[in-house]
Amino acid sequence: MDQQTSRVDVGIVGGGPAGLMTALLLKRRGISAAVVERRSQEAIRTTQRAGILEAPTVDMLVDAEIGSRVLTEGHEHEGTVLSFDGVQHRIDFQELVGRSVWLYPQNEVFRDLATAWQAEGGEIHWEADDVAVEGLESEAPVITFTDAAGEPGRIEAQLIVGADGSRSMCRRLIPDEVRTDYFTSYPFAWFGILCEAPPTAPELIYANSEVGFALISQRNEDITRMYFQCDPDTDPESWSEEAIFDHIQQVLGGEEVVQLKRGRIIEKTVLPFRSYVCDPLTHGRLVLAGDAGHTVPPTGAKGLNLAFSDVRALVPRIVEFLEGLTGGEGLTAGADDVGSGPGAPADLTAPLRRYSATSLDRVWKAQNFSWWATNLLHRAPDEDEFAHHRRRGEFRAITGSVHGQAYFADSYTGWAGDRHD
Ligand SMILES: Cc1cc2nc3c(=O)[nH]c(=O)nc-3n(C[C@H](O)[C@H](O)[C@H](O)COP(=O)(O)OP(=O)(O)OC[C@H]3O[C@@H](n4cnc5c(N)ncnc54)[C@H](O)[C@@H]3O)c2cc1C
C-alpha cells in the first residue's frame, strides 16, 4: 500500500450531513470508513441551508454522542403559524401529536458532525478534486481523487456510500437500464435572505397571499432567515432591501397582523427547487443516501431529516452486508433474496436492497407532503381566481379542523412510529 492508499470497510463520497453521520455511526459499530469531500469545511459551514430538525434527527445527534449543542443552542418549537391572506392560525404540534421540532441550523449540524469525526481521528479528505468511483460491480470498489495538495489518493473499500448531494455523481453510476428517475419541477423559486434582525415571532410563519408565499424562519437572537416566492430567473441584485421587506410584509398582511423585524441584509440567494427520486438507491457495491438519492422542495423542511432517516435505515443494513461478506451469522436472507434457493449462494447485496425499499417508502411520504405543502402555500404564476379561492378552501379545511391540523402536524414533525431502527 502506498502512502495515498487507504483500505477501509466503507468509502463515502460526500462530507455533508448524510456522509458524516454514516461515517460516525459506522464507527460506533466498529466499522471503518473514509470520507472524500469536494468542498472546504469553511465553504460548507458558511452555506445557509436547513434549519428545522425533527425529533428523531435530534435524537440521532444526541444518541451518537456527537455533542449536546443541539439541546443547549437549538430551540424547541412546539408549533408553527400558517397564514393565508393575513389571517393567522397556529398549529400546535405538541397538543396535536405530542411532538416538537427543533430549530438548529444545518451549519451547526455540520460543525458538530465534522468536529466529532475529526476529533475521533476519522479519515476525511477535504477539497478533493477529480473524485471517481470504480469497480462497483466487483468485490473491490475504489474511490480515486486528487487531494487538496494535488496528490493522487485512493480508497479501497468493500462498499461505497454515495452521499454527494443533489447533483450526485455516484447516482449516475447506477446504469440507466436499472435506474428510474422520478422528477417534477415548479414554476417558482425561493428568494432567501439572511438579515441582521431579531426574530419577528417566537415560531416560524408560513404565509401566503395574493402575491405569493413567504416564510419567516430564524437563526438566532440577532440574525433572521426569511424567504419569499420569486421567479426562478430572478437576479437577487434586482431587489432592494426596502422592496424585499415591503414585499414580505405584504405577504404577511398589515403591520397590525404582525410587524416584520427588518435589518441589514447580509446574504441574498435564489433557490430553484424540484422534487426528485432515484429508484433503486443501490446497485452492486454502491448505496445512495440523502440528497444524492432524492431531493424535495424545502417547504416541508424534510431534506436534512430524510438524509438522517436514510442513515438510520442504512447503517444496520451495512452491518448485515459486511457480516455476510465474512460469512458472519448476522446475514439474514430476506424475502427479496432473488435466486437464493437451497444450495444457491446467498445474495449478499439483499440487505442493501432492503435499505432502498425502506428508505423509499419514507421518501415518497415526504415527497407527497413537500409537494402538497408547496402547492398549498405558493401561488402559481398562472393561477386564476378560481384556483386561488380553491386553495383558500383547502387551507381552511386544514386550519379549521383538528384532523386537518393533525395531518399537517404529524407530517411536519416526522410521522409517529416511523423509526427504522
Ligand atoms: C435553502 C435550503 C433550505 C433548506 N431547508 C431545509 C429544512 O428546513 N429542513 C430540512 O430538513 N432540509 C432543508 N433543506 C435540505 C437540506 O439542506 C438537504 O437535504 C441536506 O443538505 C442533505 O444532506 P446531504 O448530506 O444528503 O447532502 P449535502 O448537504 O448536499 O452534502 C453533500 C456533500 O457532497 C459533496 N459532494 C458533491 N459532489 C461530490 C463529489 N463528486 N465528490 C466529493 N464530494 C462531493 C458536496 O460538496 C456536499 O458537501 C434545505 C435546503 C436548502 C438549499
TrEMBL record:
Keywords: FAD, Flavoprotein
Pfam families, alphabetized: FAD_binding_3
Keyword Plastid recorded: no
FAD-binding domain residues: 7-331
Entry protein name: 4-hydroxybenzoate 3-monooxygenase
Organism the protein comes from: Nesterenkonia aethiopica
Lineage: Bacteria, Bacillati, Actinomycetota, Actinomycetes, Micrococcales
